[in-house]
Design a protein that fits this description.
The complex is a heterodimer of chains A (71) and B (309). Chain A has two helices and one strand. The N and C termini of chain A lie far apart (35 Å). Chain B is an alpha+beta fold. Chain B has two domains: 99 residues, no CATH class; 180 residues, Spore Coat Polysaccharide Biosynthesis Protein SpsA, Chain A. The longest helix of chain B is centred in the middle third of the chain and has 15 residues. The chains are: A alpha+beta (71), B alpha+beta (309). At the A-B interface, β1 and α2 of A face α3, β15, β16, β17 and β18 of B. β1 of chain A pairs antiparallel with β15 of chain B.
Chain lengths: 71, 309
C-alpha cells in the first residue's frame, strides 16, 4: 500500500491551478496594491477568458524577475 | 513566546559556524507554541508549535493543568511542526512552566462543529486588500462550491481581524468563516548554493491546526493562497473529487499566468489571462479530506503533500 501511495503522485487531470504572477508585490504574502474588480461583474468570462497560449511579451529575463519577486 | 534573554533561544538547524545576520533575521528563535485549541472531544488540548529542538524539555515538562504537571502527555513531531496533546479537563487552566516561572496558555474553543460538512478553503494572508480577499472568496464560492473559509492572518496592520471577518462574512455563498490572528514571525527563504531553503514552520503548523480543528469534520479542505485560483476543466467540484479518490485527496498542477501588460505593475487577478509557452509550472497545491488516512498519518504541508513532488 505504501509503495502504491508513493508512486501515485499524479496530478488530477480535471483541475488546474492558476497562480497569478503579477498580483502581489514583495512575495506571496506581500501587499496587494491594486483594486480587484468585482468578480460577479466578470462572471461570464470567468472560465472562458483563460487563454492558454503563447505570451509574446514574456521574455526569459522577465520571467526570472517575476519569479524572483514572487519567491 | 519566551523571553528575549539569551538562555531562551530556540536553536535553528543551521550549524553555528554557518549562521549569519540573514539567518538570524528569518529564524524564529522565541516562539514556543502558535496555538492551543480544545478539541471537540472536550478533554484534550492540542498545542501546536515549531520544531522545539532545545525547547523540547520545556514542552515535555512545562505544561501544567491547574498548576500541576500535565499527565498522559502525547507528543508528535511531523516535519517542522510539533504537536503536544495534554488532557485538560473542562474549566481547568493550562499553563506552561519554564525557568521557575509559570505563564498561562490561552486555550481557544474548537471550531470543528461550525465547519462540519462544509467545503472549506484554508489560507494565510498578510495585509492583502480586503476587497481582493473578498473577491477571492467569491470566486471559490461560486465557481468551486466552497461555503466556508478558514483564514489565518499573519501580522496585518492595515486592518483589524474584525474587519477581515466582516469582509468574508458578507461574501455571498460563504456560510461560515473564521479569522484567526497569528502574530508570529513568518520566516523567510534564503538561498544557499543556488537552492532556496525556507526558515519557519508557521504556514505548515497553521495548516495542521486547520486539519485538526476547523477541517476535522469538514467535507474537504482546499489549500490556496490569495493569488491562486483553481480552474475546473470539466466543471466538476474539486471537493467532491477529493472525497472520491482512494487517497481522499487530489493534487492540482499549478502554472503561472500573466497579464497582457508588459510592465511590472501589479494587476488584478482577472487580468491574468495568458499562460506561457512553454508552460511555466509553479508548486502544486491540493484539496484533501482531513479524516483521510494519509492526512492523519503524514499531516499536511503547504506545498508537498502526500510524499512531495
Amino acid at each position: 500500500m505504501w509503495r502504491l501511495h508513493g508512486r501515485d503522485q499524479r496530478h488530477h487531470p480535471d483541475f488546474e491551478l492558476a497562480h497569478c504572477a503579477q498580483t502581489t508585490t514583495g512575495g506571496n504574502f506581500g501587499r496587494v496594491s491594486v483594486e480587484f474588480p468585482d468578480v460577479s461583474a466578470r462572471d461570464p468570462e470567468l472560465e472562458g477568458s483563460w487563454r492558454w497560449r503563447s505570451h509574446s511579451l514574456l521574455t526569459r529575463t522577465r520571467w526570472r524577475r517575476l519569479r524572483k519577486n514572487h519567491e | 513566546m519566551v523571553p528575549k534573554h539569551p538562555p531562551f533561544r530556540r536553536e535553528g538547524f543551521v550549524p553555528e559556524r554557518h549562521r549569519n545576520d540573514d539567518i538570524h533575521a528569518v529564524h524564529d528563535s522565541r516562539t514556543l507554541a502558535y496555538d492551543a485549541v480544545r478539541l471537540a472531544n472536550g478533554t484534550d488540548v492540542i498545542i501546536t508549535g515549531p520544531e522545539p529542538r532545545n525547547f523540547g524539555p520545556m514542552l515535555r515538562d512545562g505544561p501544567r493543568v491547574d498548576g500541576e504537571p500535565a499527565r498522559r502527555l502525547r507528543r508528535r513531531l511531523k516535519g517542522e511542526c510539533e504537536r503536544v496533546r495534554p488532557p485538560v479537563p473542562e474549566g481547568a487552566k493550562l499553563g506552561m512552566r519554564f525557568a521557575g516561572r509559570e505563564a498561562e496558555l490561552p486555550v481557544r474553543a474548537s471550531e470543528t462543529e461550525a465547519f462540519r460538512g462544509r467545503r472549506v478553503v484554508a489560507t494565510m494572508s498578510s495585509n492583502n486588500d480586503l476587497e481582493w480577499i473578498s473577491a477571492w472568496a467569491r470566486y471559490h464560492a461560486r465557481a468551486r462550491g466552497a461555503d466556508a473559509v478558514a483564514l489565518h492572518d499573519s501580522n496585518s496592520d492595515d486592518y483589524g481581524l474584525d474587519e477581515l471577518e466582516d469582509a468574508l462574512a458578507s461574501t455571498p455563498g460563504i456560510a461560515v468563516c473564521r479569522v484567526i490572528g497569528t502574530p508570529f514571525p513568518h520566516g523567510g527563504g534564503l538561498t544557499f548554493g543556488g537552492e532556496t531553503v525556507w526558515f519557519g514552520a508557521l504556514q505548515k503548523s497553521i495548516l495542521n491546526i486547520s486539519r485538526r480543528d476547523m477541517g476535522a469534520a469538514a467535507r474537504a479542505v482546499l489549500n490556496r493562497d490569495i493569488d491562486e485560483l483553481v480552474i475546473s476543466k470539466t466543471g466538476r467540484s474539486v471537493f467532491d473529487a477529493a472525497r472520491s479518490t482512494w487517497r481522499r485527496a487530489v493534487r492540482i498542477r499549478g502554472s503561472y499566468v500573466f497579464p497582457e501588460s508588459p510592465d511590472m505593475t501589479p494587476l488584478p487577478q482577472y487580468d491574468h489571462t495568458r499562460g506561457a509557452d512553454p508552460n511555466m509550472p509553479c508548486s502544486s497545491k491540493w484539496c484533501a479530506r482531513p479524516a483521510g488516512f494519509f492526512a492523519r498519518v503524514e499531516g499536511w504541508s503547504d506545498i508537498h503533500q502526500f510524499g512531495g513532488e
